[in-house]
Design a protein that fits this description.
This protein is of the alpha+beta class. The protein is built from 9 helices and 14 strands. It is 40% helix and 28% strand. Strand 3 and strand 4 form a beta hairpin. The chain is rod-shaped, with a radius of gyration of 35 Å. The two termini are 49 Å apart.
Length: 329
Amino acid sequence: ERRVFMKEKNLRGLWATVLLTVLFGGFAILMWFIGGIASSPQYVVDRGGLFPSNFGQNVAIKMEAIQEIGAIKGDDKAGMYLVQSGDKLVALVASKDDADIKAALAAQEKGELANSPVLVAGDKADNSSAKDNISKIRQNLKAEAQSSLNGSYLIDVQKHKSNAQMLMYGAYGFGALTLFFIGLFAFNVSRRKKAYRELYAQFPELEGNLDLLVSSGQYADSKRGLYVYKDHLIALAQRNTIVPAKDVLYLVAVKQTIQQGIASHVIYTVEAYDKNFKKHVLSTLLGSKKTYDDDVNAFTYFVDQHYPEILVGADHAPEYQALKNAAGL
């Protein structure tokens, strides 16, 4: 006879939780990196993006002189600035409350900005609207300064920082989800271990030797995780449950069809109601779909045949309800 080697399955059914934890954690790290590090001015500079050069769509600039030259249509919280870096001029869009812009204006007022430039990063804006703005700015410059103005793009600091902030919010959100799933994983593993401890407390001989559930049990279905051992109904599946048969009043198999898009799958649970009318759920392992119905029915049939005092099957639901009503529940 082939021997079945059994061991604790504390991670059973939790791989989806592990996958989601890794996935959300990866998103959180990626968003944090892009929003918090890759968007920083120094990162852009280190990648060769210091104006007049650029790093992809990002460009950093050392502001040696700055002047507000106009408002942004439809956004009274943002302004257009003309910034000097070396012998070059470039137009820059930023929030009027931007900390770097305020720092540059304050340093310039003290006469310190030229010697201690403020570094800021932004997105290159080279669409038609941006070029129209550049053209208008050039027309208002003195002739000798017009050739110094960068005509290819303006630097949108506001958009750059807004995108970075949104990415950081996303990182915080995915980070929170990651922590939630880590907690959920730890809770489920802890619950499984506790269930095994309770099993061993009742049946010390099973610790380190779960095979006895099969070799010495009254009923064993390792495929579905359902056992009867020393007159106890035991489920070792998504949840570990132990119910003394003498306490069970009513037992019924419940079939659920879970619809996921165009696909669906069936899940069985066995609900055991004790004499205090408390429900104990014996979950089952999925395994082969072809024998699922027969496997669960075989378990309930065994209970029905060996424990005649237990009401087994949905046909006995009215009797169970009558008993419950008589108890005033």
